[in-house]
Design a protein that fits this description.
The chain is α/β, with parallel strands linked by helices and 183 residues long. The protein has one domain: P-loop containing nucleotide triphosphate hydrolases (Rossmann fold, 3-Layer(aba) Sandwich). The chain has 8 helices and 9 strands. The longest helix is centred in the last third of the chain and has 17 residues. The chain starts with a strand and ends in a 6-residue tail after the last strand.
Length: 183
């Protein structure tokens, strides 16, 4: 889990895009992991604006139709389009970080069904890149509070080992992992 302190994004997050760029390139690189767009790698985002930006930035993550030369399938898509599908590795980028926007759109992003679909598409590894504001969200609305608690527990109970801490362009970033298991 990669947690950052960028806090001004709504349906498009250039900071998150820059954070995930080296991860996506490494996973798609045929000399490294070689995960392809059809079955290997998936990037789940909630908003079409973020999907479009990532598809444009990473054309190598699309399967191009030989007749139309347009993307026939992409590794980058919305939660709704990933429903029912799986990939070897899935990267989830919730995009939103603006606290006021998070509260206003909480029924959308914090919907437990949307979170379940996003984090359950991975066969082997799931990487979540998200703003700290999602995990710190507090609302007096009971349903929003309960749904935000699911995100908090995802961070606090599954990723308990701090692997790296630093900053990117002056914005604090922390990388968390699950417990290290010795075989």
């Amino acid at each position: 889990m990669v947690v950052h302190d960028e806090g001004g994004s709504q349906v498009r997050n250039p900071f998150e895009q820059e954070l995930i760029a080296p991860i996506l390139r490494a996973l798609a690189d045929p000399t490294r992991y070689g995960l392809e767009a059809a079955e290997g790698l998936g990037v789940v985002v909630p908003h079409r604006a973020q999907r479009a930006a990532l598809q444009q930035a990473f054309p190598e993550l699309s399967v191009i139709d030989p007749d139309t030369h347009l993307p026939a399938r992409s590794a980058v898509d919305t939660v709704e389009r990933f429903q029912g599908g799986e990939r070897t590795v899935v990267l989830v980028s919730p995009t939103e970080s603006d606290r006021a926007y998070l509260l206003a759109s909480s029924a959308f992003l914090l919907d437990p069904r949307r979170l379940t679909v996003a984090v359950s598409r991975a066969k082997r590894k799931m990487i979540l890149v998200a703003a700290q504001s999602i995990f710190a969200l507090f609302s007096p609305d009971e349903e929003t509070f309960a749904n935000a608690l699911l995100w908090k527990n995802l961070l606090l109970r599954t990723c308990t080992t701090l692997l790296w801490e630093g900053d990117r362009d002056g914005v604090p970033v922390k990388v968390w992992g699950g417990p290290i298991l010795l075989e």
